[in-house]
Write the C-alpha cells for this entry.
Amino acid sequence: MRQRFTINYKDRRILYIIFFFCIFSTILTFSKLDQQIIINNESKRYNAINTLNYIDIDPFIIDESGNGDYTWEEISNEIWCQGNGTYSNPYIISNLEINCYIAYSHGACIEVLNSNKFFIIEECKLYSSDEGYYKFKYGIRMENTNNSLIRDNKFVHDNELHLHSGIRLYNSHNNTMINNYIKWVGSGIHLEGSKFNTITNNIIVKSGDQFSCIYTDSNSIDNTISNNYCGLEDPVPQKCTFITDHQKIHKNNILIQWNLIENADNYSIFIDGVFYVNSKDNQEIIFFNNNGSYSITVISINKYGESEPSDPLYILVELIPKLEPPIIFTKNQTIYTNNIVIEWSEVQRADNYSIYINGSFYDKSKDNQELINFQNLGIYTITITAVNSYWESEHSLPLYIEVISPDGDSIQISGYNFIIILIIIFGIVIILKRSKKIVKFF
C-alpha cells in the first residue's frame, strides 16, 4: 500500500519561515530603493525688537487722576493700545518709538501715575537724540502704580548722559520687568519704596563703575531680582557689515560674506525680510529660484540677544534659462555582452552631459553618446542630465538594460546567494528527516 506523505504543523511552520526568507532575500538582492531627502525650510519673519515697524510718537503721561495726557480709558482709543485693564485682558502698549528730547514733567518717555489697572508695555524703543543731562531722565517712570508688565523694550540714546534710569519706580508694587535692554544709563532699574516686584533677564550696560545696574532703597523689600546681566561691555553682538558687494548674477546662487562678529554664536539671514537660513559661519551660499532684485540682511545672535540688521545687500538675478532634460534614443533592451553604446538628443546651451546608472553618477560626456560598460549581470537603469555652468537639468526618462550571459542566465550566484541556497536545502532536509522520508546518508 502506498504511504501518504504528510507534513505536521511544526514542519509547516519551518516551510513558511523558509518561504518568507526566500522572498525577503530576493528583494534585497534584485531591488534598490532610492531615497530622496527633501528639506523644507519654513520661512518665518523677524520677531526681534530691532526689526519691528515702530509707531513714532511724542512722550506722554497716563494719570488716572486726570492730570496727564491720558487716562487709561482715553488712551485705549489709540491704535497702539488695546485691552480693558483687567487681569485677563490688560491694556497693551506696544511698538512705539519715542524720542524723549522734551523736558516733559519728570523727563520720561512714558510716565504712568496713580494706576491699579493691569497693563503691559512691550517692544518699544525709547531714546533721546538731544543733548543735555536731564532732557531724558527716565525711559519709563511709574509712581503709585501697580500690576504692570514691562518686557522686551529697548532703552538707547546718542549721548551717555541722557538717560538717568531706564525704568524708575516710586511707591509701586507687583510690577514685572523682564527681557529689557538698557544701555548707557545712570542706574538701569531704580526702585524707591516699591515692593513685590520682579526684575529678571534684563540686559543693563553701564556707562561707568559709579553707576548701579539695579538700585533698591531700604524701603524697597520683598522684590525678586534674578538672572540679569550687568556690565560695562555690551553682551549683545554688533551689527554685521557685508564684505560682498552689490551685484548682478546670471546663475541661481551666490556666496555672500560678512564681517566676523566676535561674540556672535550664529547668524540669521533674511531675504526681502523673510527668514532664509541660520549660519554658524560668516558666509553662506544663497540660492534663487526666479529672476528679480533681492535684498539680503544678516543679524548676529548670541544668548543675550540679536544685533540690528545689517545694511542690505542687493543682488539682481537674471537667470540663464534652465536646461531641458535629454531624450534617450536607445530603446530598452536585453544584451548578451558587457557593454552598449547609448545615444540621446542634444540639448541647447548644454556644455556636457552626466550619465547616471542606478541613481549613481557614472561618467560625463561631451557628446550625445557614450559606451557603457557593465561589470555584472543584471538589470540597469540609466538616466542622462544636461549640464552647463549655471544649471543641471532634470534627469531624462530612464533607459532599462538587462545584461544576461550568452546561455540566457541573468542571475549570478554570489557568495551571499550560495549561503541562502544552503540554508534552504538544510531546512528541507530537516523536514524530510522529521517525516522519516529520507535515507540517512550523512
Remarks:
- Confidence is low (pLDDT under 50) at residues 1-5, 26-51, 438-442.
- The first strand starts at residue 55 and ends at 57.
- The two ends are 29 Å apart (CA to CA).
- Residues 9-30 form the longest helix (22 residues).
